[in-house]
């Protein structure tokens, strides 16, 4: 009996997706758009801010605390406050994703750069490199595993937060989750929830591959601790 129920649940959500393929691809597109735009904007802000945090102690303290504050604001509160000013749709959802993605990237950028050994920086100075050249040729390449770890973490979180966009007409898989709850139909709910879980795995693996291509061959990283060796 239980096996039959489980089998029906397993096939039911998949059948719902197959019967609603056009809407599925539309929801996938809107979900991805929100996540990737919010993530890209967070990278553009958080990586330079993380670099600044390693150069100026007091300014770094301010930057890190602002990032922590942005992380503690509930995404639903950001959406609720911002849609009154910029309207319904994806823009307030992307704004919430942007704020939510900042702190992991910011912290990991600062941590990665601070872990670069002084001897490596001194070697760069001995070669006549400027501060900018040392940053570009030594610090960022060596810090890249830790930075990418922060990007992967924030991306995974953003996929979950993007479900909230359905409350303000932003689309995404949250639309089916809400619809399934309203109709008490598990098939529809799972049709919205399971693709999001698959999306987490796919994007995480995509960033892992990108990280492996951009990480210097003489750098290894321990993902559990964020340490690296060269």
UniProtKB/TrEMBL annotation:
Topology relative to the membrane: Multi-pass membrane protein
Assigned protein family: Belongs to the binding-protein-dependent transport system permease family.
InterPro entries referenced in this protein's UniProt entry, alphabetically: ABC_transp_perm/SBD (IPR051204), MetI-like (IPR000515), MetI-like_sf (IPR035906)
Statement: the UniProt record of this protein carries the keyword Endoplasmic reticulum: no
GO terms, biological process: glycine betaine transport; transmembrane transport
Keywords, in A-Z order: Membrane, Transmembrane, Transmembrane helix, Transport
Gene3D superfamilies cross-referenced by the UniProt entry: MetI-like
Name of the protein described by the UniProt record: ABC transmembrane type-1 domain-containing protein
Source organism: Haladaptatus pallidirubidus
Domain of life from the UniProt record: Archaea
Limits of the ABC transmembrane type-1 domain: 28-207
One Gene Ontology cellular component annotation held by this UniProt entry: plasma membrane
Segments crossing the lipid bilayer: 34-54, 61-83, 89-106, 142-168, 188-207
Pfam family, one: BPD_transp_1
Record's subcellular location: Cell membrane; Membrane
SUPFAM superfamilies: MetI-like (SSF161098)
